[in-house]
Amino acid sequence: MAAALPSPFPQEIALDLDVSNRWEALRTVSALIERSRSLSAPPVFRALWRREQAASTALGNGFALPHARIEGIPEPVTVYARTKRPIGFAAPDHRAVSELFVLLVPSDADNTKHLRLLALVAEMFSDNDFRAGLLKASDAASIRSAFAQWIERGGSGAGATIAA
Is the per-residue pLDDT at 113 higher than 80? Predict the structure, then answer.
């Protein structure tokens, strides 16, 4: 049996981000991570922006999955963010993005586990019922509840074991 993946449950939640583009969104999320996780915002932002410049992390349908490897963190850091207004993110479907799931992983993280975690989050945000629940949620508690329900029901049943 494969090793359990870290939970895709967001450690931080930011709603109604008042940003006008992806650069501002990533700066704002980096500052949130600095305040909540004591990680310096500039290197977090640089890593996220460098990845974004390589290729957009927007997956389509109004969702982006910014991610980067970060030195000095022992475990993944996760943030769910929703913008006040949809923003351009160079999405493959050309739709503006209003939901982001930011994933930071240790720089020395196992590549296979990292890719499986990215795939799990992409799967989660491809679930129409889950997305509808998130969009109805108006506060952090409701967002956490939507994530918890998806995790408890085992997602779409793809077989990934999620660590609690």
Answer: yes
Question: What average pLDDT does the segment 6-23 reach?
Answer: 90
Q: In the prediction, which pLDDT does 6 show?
A: 58
User: Is residue 67 a contact partner of residue 105, using CB atoms and an 8 Å limit?
Assistant: yes
Encode pLDDT of 24-58 as tens digits: 999 999 999 999 998 999 999 999 999 999 999 99
Known catalytic residue at 67: yes
Q: Classify each residue of 11-40 as buried b or exposed e, where b means 16 or more C-beta atoms within 10 Å of its C-beta.
A: ebbbeebebeebeebbbbbbebbbeebebe
Give a yes or no: residue 74 inside a domain.
yes
Domain count, the chain: 1
- The fraction of the chain above a pLDDT of 90, given in percent, is 71
The catalytic residue among 14, 26, 64, 67 is: 67
CATH number of the domain that residue 70 is part of: 3.40.930.10
